[in-house]
Structure formats: structure tokens, C-alpha cells
Amino acid sequence: MDIDELLCHMDVLYKTALTKTRDADLAEDFVQETYLHTLSALARGVKIQNPKAYLLSVLRNRFFMDLRKRYKISTIYY
């Protein structure tokens, strides 16, 4: 997988993160964490078939992990 295949989705990730967080700085942090996690997965040999879907899933999971940590809740219903 080429890095350009991942980077072309940055705008969508940022807009999604901004919608969820309503905070530009926090949205940028989530996008950075998403790319860091994805690059780490690629280094471990994970095969990504649909980069956009994978990135959005990682972003969503990171967002919910952050919510659970901030509010000390175990389950989030969405």
C-alpha cells in the first residue's frame, strides 16, 4: 500500500473528526493518531483492502476510546 492512498483521505478524516469533536485542535490530534495507528498496522503487516473505510473506523474507535477515558464510562451506545 502506498502512503498516497492513505493521505488522499485526510480531508474526509479531518471533517469527520471536526464534526465529532467540534474542536479544530482536537480534530487534528485525532487525525494524527489515526494515521499513526494505521502506519503502525501497516508496519506489522496488516493488509488494508479499503483505506478510507479503515481510516474512518480507526478514527471512530479512537474517538470513542477518548470519550470513555474522559468520562470514565465502559459502554457507549451510538
What does this structure look like?
Helices cover 74% and strands 0% of the residues. With 78 residues, it is mostly helical. The longest helix is centred in the last third of the chain and has 21 residues, at 51-71. The protein is globular and about 35 Å long. It starts with a helix and ends in a 7-residue tail after the last helix. The model has no long low-confidence stretch (mean pLDDT 91).
What's the structural blueprint in terms of helices and strands?
Layout: H1 3-7, H2 10-21, H3 24-43, H4 51-71
Helix pairs in contact: 2-3, 2-4, 3-4
Helix content range: over 70%
* pLDDT averaged over residues: 91
Strand element count: 0
Count of alpha and pi helical runs = 4
Structural class: mainly alpha
Distance between the termini: 32 Å
Q: Can you summarize this structure?
A:
This protein has 78 residues and is mostly helical. It has helices at residues 3-7, 10-21, 24-43, 51-71.
